[in-house]
């Protein structure tokens, strides 16, 4: 089963619902300053977040959040970072970032469907 949680600027507020769902895999998708063109996508091991990009809009670092959930649930975790055009609060999402987000969503759905059919 697949569940989507929208964490906004405070994804740590979703630890309760995520723990109640008890996922085997956790995929966190977020904007990150990686000094790349807007819409660039990078899969990041949560333990390498500090080495790879800046997720500066959250009060709790994503490495701490994913570490806590991995420990609590015994799940695998990955972060998918998308380079934004701007990190300014309230700015609309540019086309290249919106396209990247749709590509990521399709890839996750394809993976989920193929994993489900293999079970």
Please tell me the total number of domains. Answer: 1
| Fraction of residues in H or I helices | 25-40%
Q: What is the CA-based Rg, rounded?
A: 14 Å
Mean pLDDT: 87
Count of helical stretches: 4
- State the end-to-end CA separation: 12 Å
Structural class: alpha+beta
Helix and strand sequence: HEEHHEH
Query: Which runs of at least 5 residues are low in confidence (pLDDT < 50)?
Result: none
* Strand line-up in the sheet with most strands: 1-3-2
Tell me which CATH architecture applies here: 3-Layer(aba) Sandwich
CATH H-level superfamily: HybD-like
Tally of DSSP β-strands = 3
Q: What topology emerges from the helices and strands here?
A:
Elements: H1 15-21, E1 25-31, E2 41-44, H2 49-52, H3 62-73, E3 76-82, H4 95-118
Parallel strand pairs: 1-3
Antiparallel strand pairs: 2-3
How would you describe this protein?
By secondary structure, this protein is of the alpha+beta class. The chain has a single domain (11-118), classed as HybD-like (Rossmann fold). It is built from four helices and three strands; from the N terminus they run H-E-E-H-H-E-H. Strands 1-3-2 form a three-stranded mixed beta sheet, sandwiched between helices. The model has no long low-confidence stretch (mean pLDDT 87).
């Amino acid at each position: 089963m697949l569940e989507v949680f929208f964490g906004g600027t405070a994804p740590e507020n979703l630890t309760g619902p995520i723990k109640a769902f008890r996922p085997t895999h956790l995929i966190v998708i977020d904007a990150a300053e990686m000094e790349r063109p807007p819409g660039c996508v990078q899969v990041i091991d949560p333990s390498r977040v500090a080495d790879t990009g800046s997720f500066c809009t959250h009060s709790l670092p994503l490495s701490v959040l994913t570490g806590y959930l991995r420990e609590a649930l015994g799940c695998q975790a990955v972060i998918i970072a998308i380079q934004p055009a701007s990190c300014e609060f309230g700015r609309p999402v540019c086309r290249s970032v919106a396209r990247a987000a749709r590509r990521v969503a399709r890839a996750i759905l394809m993976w989920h469907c193929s994993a489900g059919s293999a079970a």
